[in-house]
Design goal:
Layout lengths: L6 H24 L3 H25 L1
Length: 59
Amino acid sequence: MKNIYSNKNKRCCSLEHDRLVHQLGACEKESNSSQERHRCYRRAAKVSGRRARQCMQDG
């Protein structure tokens, strides 16, 4: 059975995962409280999810 995801899709999603990990690390360093960190995590996840969906659509 042929894989439905191209190498381009996989590469894009892999890069997006790396970006998300980096952004979550930045949230950890920059936030002063757990509430700020939580908001930063949610914002990072939302943006990352949008970009990941775009990766899958562009394939």
